[in-house]
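Field guide to reading this record: the first block holds the primary sequence, the second block holds the structure written as discrete tokens, and the final block holds curator observations. Each block starts with its own label. This record concerns DUF1178 family protein, catalogued under organism Phyllobacterium pellucidum.

BLOCK 1 — SEQUENCE
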Amino acid sequence: MIRFSLHCEHDHEFEGWFRSNDDFDSQVGKGLVACPACGSHSIGKALMAPSVTTGRQKEKVAVAMSKMVSELKEMTRKVRENADYVGSDFAEEARKIHFGEVEKRGIYGEASQEEVKSLLDDGVDVMPLPVFPEERN
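BLOCK 2 — STRUCTURE
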């Protein structure tokens, strides 16, 4: 797919995705492309700079991803240190806390997808804790 920057006869700018340049020409020729702002079918392509990813940009992304994973690991570690592990009783215990049947506290444990959906439907806020590869050993 190719992304084109487009404009209409009234200088409204928008984007469109096409399989090829010929596909763009064909759709415009059949009147299938319209300006989302004014509905004009008089559409042209604007000049676009090519999107090129440099090694420096890739390195910045890798550093950002590494930082994000480190922060996620730290957040997970803090939750596990400061909350009670309730194992497979998580859904039941979360409901008790939510409805004031037991003292409010941080918990973590396991829950099935169905249990999580049911908790969310009941208005219980839950968030999955990631399990990192090195924790599976």
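BLOCK 3 — OBSERVATIONS
The chain has a mean pLDDT of 91.
The chain is about 40% helix and 15% strand.
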